[in-house]
């Protein structure tokens, strides 16, 4: 049985240093991994911090945001599929290159056309009464529907729902803003 002495204490010190270095590298690696994901989430928000049409903070609505890239190199950032649909309608002569939407759970941008969409349900949507949420995984969409209701569909059906709801949603938004102005006037 070895006794503690200068050699063993030195060895323990080296082992402790090695352990601490490994822990530091592990912490740095995990930090870089999360900062990379955060940078991905933030890059489109940095370019377009607020929605042009409604003024909403896109970081606050990172779970519903949309990022559009046009062939001419211009981009547009929206808070929701509602406002993205407005932009696409206003810029009908521009050719779309890519439409990305936030995954409801992870907030990471995913391809809007391959996303699994949930339309409707009990959870209030962004800029709409009938919510439109995107998911990268079908099982996530199914879990959401199980908890909140709604219907699973593809991008085309989600866009059709946006345009079907446009009048009612615009009316709802105008009424809410009118009420907010009246409340400010009373204070």
Q: Provide the low-confidence segments as ranges.
A: 28-41
Shape: globular
Strand order of the largest sheet: 2-1-3-4
- Cα radius of gyration in angstroms: 24 Å
Mean pLDDT: 86
**H/E element order:** HEEHEEEEHEH
Strand content: 15-25%
Q: What is the terminal-to-terminal distance?
A: 81 Å
Helix content: 40-55%
Tally the helices. Answer: 4
Largest sheet: 4 strands, antiparallel
E-strand count? 7
Structural notes for this entry:
There is one protein chain. By secondary structure, the protein is an alpha+beta fold. It is built from 4 helices and 7 strands, in the order H-E-E-H-E-E-E-E-H-E-H. A 4-stranded antiparallel β-sheet has the order 2-1-3-4, sandwiched between helices. A hairpin with a 4-residue loop joins strand 1 and strand 2. The longest helix has 42 residues, at 6-47. The chain starts with 5 loop residues before the first helix and ends with a helix. The model is unreliable at 28-41 (pLDDT under 50).
Quick synopsis:
This protein is an alpha+beta fold and 187 residues long. The protein contains four helices and seven strands, in the order αββαββββαβα.
What layout of secondary structure does this protein have?
Blueprint (H helix, E strand, L loop, with lengths): L5 H42 L18 E5 L4 E4 L2 H10 L5 E7 L6 E3 L4 E4 L12 E4 L2 H11 L2 E3 L1 H32 L1
Antiparallel strand pairs: 1-2, 1-3, 3-4, 5-6, 5-7
């Amino acid at each position: 049985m070895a006794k503690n002495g200068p050699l063993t204490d030195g060895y323990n010190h080296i082992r402790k240093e090695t352990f601490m270095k490994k822990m530091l590298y592990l912490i740095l690696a995990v930090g870089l991994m999360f900062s990379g994901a955060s940078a991905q989430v933030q890059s489109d928000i940095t370019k377009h911090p607020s929605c042009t049409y409604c003024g909403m903070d896109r970081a606050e609505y990172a779970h519903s945001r949309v990022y559009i890239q046009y062939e001419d190199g211009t981009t547009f950032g929206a808070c929701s599929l509602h406002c993205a649909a407005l932009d696409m309608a206003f810029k009908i002569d521009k050719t779309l290159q890519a439409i990305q939407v936030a995954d409801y759970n992870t907030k990471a941008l995913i391809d809007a056309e391959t996303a699994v969409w949930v339309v409707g349900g009990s959870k209030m949507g962004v800029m709409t009464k009938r919510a439109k949420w995107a998911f990268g995984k079908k099982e996530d969409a199914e879990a959401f529907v199980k908890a909140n209701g709604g219907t699973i569909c593809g991008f085309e059906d989600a866009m059709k729902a946006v345009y079907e709801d446009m009048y009612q949603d615009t009316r709802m938004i105008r009424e809410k803003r009118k009420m907010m102005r009246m409340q400010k006037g009373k204070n």
